[in-house]
């Protein structure tokens, strides 16, 4: 009997998929990376399914690749040969939503936007807001410590994660954290698992923090600039002025052109960058008007301020179209360096120069309020590996980000795509400690091998 037959027999009927065509659809994420040939896919619907799968995997030394919605952009859920893909997408229960305590207990397959909508029925919101919030899952957000459009004010996923239910590599169940807003008992295991990309354990539930939803829709502006650097300078000035936006997004000319070619947004020939910002405080309109003045002082050629929630949604909707528009142009190597806000204009210039120097098409968007830039390196569809000039341009961008005191990844994670640069940032001592942590939680090395560290 094949080892996988024992797994099929141990789980309820139809939990394990072995059809090669179906397996292939679960073996990929949103990157260009080609997967290997997994043995099968487990469609987990309960924690017990996960426990059974990991006990079997430990016994038979079979690598396990945890997977959420498959929307990752770093290759963390790309499956290799001989692995088992463990899909958590069917674990979609909101087990509890407590308005009194402002928390929710959710399973990993819950769609991010669905949790936010459920919270808003009680006057609350779930703050993390990835651009893919309508398709990305809470489990995937936790695995990568996802950020998003609102993180300039509310922080990344880790800032909303209070506690976790995790199945370890040997099938034991671990509960970390708490339901309270404060707690310092023991080491912060919750924070350790958030961002670990499925290399330390499989998250089967999370207690997350909810926040009071703004009483009124946020006020929104969009400013057009004749240069990307001017837009970056406006961001720095807005943050230095203490405006505390709840959203501050930057789109370069290449991104705007891709959106215009797709959706005909009426892009002006002189517009080289667009800045979209929001304020969700009670006097948000006054704050937005202040940000409007700062944009004009820093070279904005035109600033539009929304007059209705529909107009605000339309402006923010432009930002959410960005990645889909670029995917139409070619295969995408999507990066997410993050630098101190004070050097944002310099990092923007460095990205532009790298594209020119290496002859590479780069389209950049940014969660500009927290210095998190997403330069997207575009190359020919169907190419299994980015050409040498793309890697050279990416290498230059990464090194410049580190020189500016930044980081290789602000929210997408390391996955497969950034491992070659990881030690440039972490250094040998940190790398050794991280390998030691991995060995404690996963001594057999079966959890998402080859990823993140």
Automatic annotation (TrEMBL):
It comes from Nonomuraea salmonea. Its cofactor is FAD. Residues 34-213 form the FAD-binding PCMH-type domain. This is FAD-binding oxidoreductase. It comes from the Bacteria. The keyword Oxidoreductase applies. Keywords: FAD, Flavoprotein, Oxidoreductase. The lineage of its organism: Bacteria, Bacillati, Actinomycetota, Actinomycetes, Streptosporangiales.
């Amino acid at each position: 009997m094949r080892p996988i037959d024992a797994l099929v027999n141990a789980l309820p009927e139809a939990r394990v998929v072995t059809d090669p065509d179906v397996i292939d659809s679960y073996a990929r994420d949103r990157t260009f990376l080609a997967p290997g040939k997994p043995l099968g896919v487990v469609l987990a619907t309960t924690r017990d399914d996960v426990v059974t799968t990991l006990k079997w995997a430990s016994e038979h030394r079979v690598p396990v690749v945890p997977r959420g919605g498959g929307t990752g952009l770093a290759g963390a859920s790309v499956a290799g040969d001989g692995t088992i893909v463990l899909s958590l997408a069917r674990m979609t229960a909101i087990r509890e939503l407590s308005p009194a305590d402002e928390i929710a207990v959710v399973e990993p397959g819950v769609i991010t936007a669905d949790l936010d909508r459920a919270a808003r029925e009680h006057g609350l919101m779930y703050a993390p807001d990835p651009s893919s919030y309508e398709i990305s899952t809470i489990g995937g957000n936790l695995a990568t410590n996802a950020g998003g459009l609102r993180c300039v004010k509310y922080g990344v996923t880790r800032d909303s994660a209070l506690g976790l239910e995790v199945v370890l590599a040997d099938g034991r169940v671990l509960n970390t954290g708490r339901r309270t807003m404060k707690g310092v008992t023991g080491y912060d295991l919750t924070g350790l698992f958030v961002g670990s990309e499925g290399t330390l354990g499989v998250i089967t539930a999370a207690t997350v923090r909810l926040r009071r939803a703004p009483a009124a829709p946020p006020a929104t502006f969009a400013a057009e600039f004749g240069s990307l650097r001017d837009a970056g300078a406006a961001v720095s000035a807005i943050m230095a002025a203490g405006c505390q936006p709840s959203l501050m997004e930057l789109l370069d000319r290449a991104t705007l052109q891709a959106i215009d070619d797709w959706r005909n947004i009426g892009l002006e020939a002189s517009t080289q960058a667009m800045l979209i910002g929001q304020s969700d405080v009670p006097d948000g309109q006054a704050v937005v008007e202040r940000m409007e003045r700062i944009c004009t002082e820093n070279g904005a050629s035109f600033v539009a301020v929304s007059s209705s929630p529909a107009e605000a949604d339309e402006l923010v909707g432009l930002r959410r179209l960005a990645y889909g528009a670029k995917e139409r142009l070619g295969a995408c190597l999507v990066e997410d360096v993050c630098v101190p806000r004070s050097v944002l204009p310099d990092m923007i210039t460095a990205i532009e120069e790298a594209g020119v120097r290496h002859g590479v098409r780069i389209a950049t968007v940014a969660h500009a309020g927290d210095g998190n830039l997403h330069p997207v390196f575009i190359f020919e569809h169907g190419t299994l590996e980015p050409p040498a000039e793309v890697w050279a341009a990416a290498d230059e961008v990464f090194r410049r980000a580190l020189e500016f005191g930044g980081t290789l990844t602000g929210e997408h994670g390391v996955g497969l795509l950034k491992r070659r640069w990881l030690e440039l940032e972490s250094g040998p001592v940190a790398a050794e400690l991280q390998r030691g942590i991995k060995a404690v939680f996963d001594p057999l090395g079966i959890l998402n091998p080859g990823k993140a560290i």
